[in-house]
Amino acid sequence: MSSPAPRLYLITDRHAASGRPLADVVAAALRGIPGGTPPGQVAVQLREKDLSGLALAELARALRAVTAAAGVGLWINDRVDVALAVGADGVHLGGHSMDVAAAARVGPGLAIGVSAHAPSEVAALAAAAGGRLAFALLGPIHDTPSKRAYGPPLGIAAVTAAARAGTPIVAVGGIAPAHVRDLLAAGAHGVACIRAVMAAPDAAIPVGAFCQQLKTAQEMDSR
After folding, report:
1. Are the C-beta atoms of residues 134 and 3 closer than 8 Å to each other?
2. For 4-89, where are the E strands, in sequence order?
3. Which 8-state DSSP code applies to residue 7?
4. DSSP code of 73?
5. What is the DSSP letter of 15?
6. Which residues, 6 or more positions from 46, have their beta carbon under 8 angstroms from its beta carbon?
7. Fewest beta carbons less than 10 Å away: which of 36, 58, 91, 190?
8. 194-89-4-35 Cα dihedral, nearest 10 degrees
């Protein structure tokens, strides 16, 4: 059974953590989630592409303990085997990963997210996934150093276009708490961030700010 798409997707980058152990940074970040936040609203993606499988699995086990204690989901970038080995909730597939159908066969109990860099990619991935996609991570929406290799920023209009495919859209790329309301109004299900949390001296502070903006936007939408 697929996990719900996250409203706040925290993507790791240990190189942005100023030498602090990644598990400690993630634990600090998750302390910023306000009490009463519904289950499934927040998830962590372990995305450390330069690590070996063994090192990634060791780090994934540490993050599984941290995320389980906080009651949030853990997703592993690319590596279905590591996701299965550590009991993660999902696997996140990029352009060089196995396709969704293959991942679903190998890990039938894993939720599956994908990365896309254009609205047309979201539609194509959704069509090929046979209903297995939990969400699509779309970006970069705004300029950010980590996403410049994927081309110029897409802008907020791309969120609206991508959401028409019916797959929940999580926006990434230069996202700050101040952007949340406009992105959800444009059709995003949630937002993702990397450096805004990983590089923060106290990672709980930006997480709390994101959660507050998400709560406010959802309350306004329900009126």
Report:
1. yes
2. 8-11, 42-46, 73-77
3. S
4. E
5. G
6. 12, 56, 59, 60, 63, 74, 75, 76, 77, 88
7. 36
8. -70
Closest CA to 45 of 157, 197, 223, 222: 197
Residue labelled with tokens 């389980």: 68
Per 3-state DSSP, what percentage of the chain is helix, strand, and coil (rounded to 5)? 45, 15, 40
Q: How many residues does the chain have?
A: 223
- Domain boundary assignment for the chain: 8-221
- At 203, which amino acid appears? A
Fold of 8-221: TIM Barrel (3.20.20)
Q: Whole-angstrom Cα distance, residue 116 to residue 120? A: 9
The structure's pTM equals 0.95
Mean pLDDT for the stretch of residues 17-44: 96
Please answer whether residues 8 and 34 qualify as being in contact, where contact means their C-beta atoms are separated by less than 8 angstroms. no
State yes or no: pLDDT of 2 exceeds 50: no
pLDDT digits (tens, 9 = 90+) for 57-107: 999 999 999 999 999 999 999 999 999 999 999 999 998 889 999 999 999
Strand partners, 155: none
Q: Is the CB of residue 167 less than 8 Å from the CB of residue 135?
A: yes
In the chain the first and final C-alpha atoms are separated, in Å, by 31
State the Rg of the chain over Cα. Answer: 16
C-beta atoms surrounding 39 within 10 Å? 10
